[in-house]
């Protein structure tokens, strides 16, 4: 048992056959060339093939859609879950979409149109229509009968939604509860009132956070009239949260958008994703150089000042990137909101003053040794100001970007560092010029 | 309905009463002082109170454990789920543990001892013992009867585990399947062979990744003899994945350990978590200063060289932190493993050469303008070498740390930047000295 479980960690050595989990089969397909992948996919029973297709990464899906015949693709798409089908459809070119639609039955065509219409990033875009519903007046016995008939087509029947005559969501009931209840009880007696529905237009990350917070298997999605239009399931919530975490992390390293897998991405793609920010930052950092040029005379007179330049500008950037990271993450988890800015700024000021004093003390000892009392004083006072300014900018930038409607995660790391560099140069050399030259 | 759903986004305005979800009640309690929180918690029905207590953050739990009487705490702890109870127990001081144990029944005491014995960070530490089991020879009818009797005590009966006479795990069956099956069928006929059990000693992050990958509600946990000892559920998997993402993100900003919530953490705590790395990096950056001191004569002769110092050292750090972030994330998601190092290094070399050439070109134009052909050449060749070296170090560091048994996430951001700074100073000024002075 334990050894079998270990197998999942080495999918590359696994054989490709119908005994494998679709998630593992998908990983194997992704490593094949398209012709091999097509043949292997078609060798699977149709329903397993459709599940496997749904687990594939978007690029492989689109690639396979090109090499499969219309009939083969239509058969697979018909077997897929509603949400996976709509996702695939959104990834195809209009030409591919038009080729695919006639091969599908009326019900699937309409399901695709409905699900694919929702804006990306919303609850509507990740919800599925494969849920089961009940009405209040059914008995528990009839309800179980209905679920038995519908179960094979549904993504989950562990929680069933209770609707009124207008399809408005009024409650939900767990399968566990139905099994425990007396067969003659009415659904109205055993259901829970539903108060945690989300709206189709809600942000998908918020919906995923709510599923994580309430430990539920799924959350119902309603339209503006309170009518049930879909459910978001726990597995989609995990996918959203993982994708967002990866995205935040990559933004912190100035990748304008996500690289799905660095191990398989092409060198051209990696170059394109990375070069934009790097070159932009070159011009940002040249401003620091321009700042230095303003103080050419001071530098020429006191070359020893240059030795402290790296530590001063790096410290401002380090303190700033600490506070921006903490703020970005707290905003992402909902611990901190826009209205907390003022309060956070005061707290950050206290922390930054304590940090700045500690670091000024550390660096002034070296300043004393290298260049005497005056230099030690200039270096220490610069360090204090630079650390405090860097921290305050680092904390405020995510709020500012968020207010401007931009993603706060863009603010972290190198953007803060570049800003801190310029501030550091100006603070340090203007203080040095005032005390040593003036 | 939609408006009610909105409520959850403003928990601070919600009332504290038994109609709320325990996750919301826990948030309200966390904002009260301990005496208020104690009174509010005790005002809830016991079972809701225990659920709410389980949702509290660790600090509030430990704080409340101090102000509750032994009897009150024992009553709440008895009602909690096995895994939440064991987590709480591990957070208490030995004195608190000894005060609590006599108040519990024998069954709970043994459950705590068993669950609390597993090492932190393993599947054993996050598993729960509230699962239901069946044997192969039961009929579907008897199995449903058994589940009906046991359901109220179990965390989930949506999937039930099938054991042989020695408690070894041989399969599992979904509640959905039991409902669909004929009452007279044997469990052996309807169960699925279980091949995805994890071991108690498996890393909790790997287990959570497996739950995310296979889209399951729970995974069974077995001991070294293949005997079922617990299950890890999807909600615990989400918690693990979120905590790991936060931790990786914070490590990228040099926080030695996690700050739970920057909005409520004390200023003293924030200072302590941040000062360590900042001061350490001060001494790292002073090395760059010491490197500069080696080239005092070169700098004095060509002050213009200093103007390009910020852009050169920052570019090495930026390129390095891009590649370390990509590598860390790919290692965390399992896309890249130790054995891929060599292959990744070759790919990174190609990408970095292309990036370095682009950036050398960008910066040489400015060099030409500021100081003529010789300076432009020195700056361009330095940029190329610094970007390539920074990228290779950035990509290799996570592998190196991982091989040394350290967390690769520690490598990102400022650590890479500081290394790149020192390299940058040495490369730039040795090239400059060779071409301009030598």
Protein architecture, described:
- The structure is a homodimer of 438-residue chains.
- With 438 residues, chain A is of the alpha/beta class.
- Chain A folds into three domains: 2-117, MgtE N-terminal domain-like (MgtE N-terminal fold); 126-243, CBS-domain (Roll), CATH 3.10.580; 267-437, SLC41 divalent cation transporters, integral membrane domain (Tetracycline Repressor, domain 2), CATH 1.10.357.20.
- Chain A contains 21 helices and seven strands.
- The first copy, chain A, has helices at 2-6, 22-30, 34-43, 46-55, 58-67, 70-79, 82-91, 94-100, 106-116, 123-126, 140-150, 175-180, 187-190, 204-214, 234-252, 267-294, 296-301, 304-307, 309-332, 341-403, 414-437; strands at residues 131-135, 156-163, 169-174, 192-193, 198-199, 218-222, 228-233.
- In chain A, strand 1, helix 11 (140-150) and strand 2 (156-163) form a beta-alpha-beta unit.
- In chain A, helix 7 packs across helix 9, helix 14 crosses helix 15 (234-252) and helix 19 packs across helix 20.
- Residues 1-13 of chain A have low confidence and may be disordered.
- The interface between A and B is large, with 126 and 126 residues.
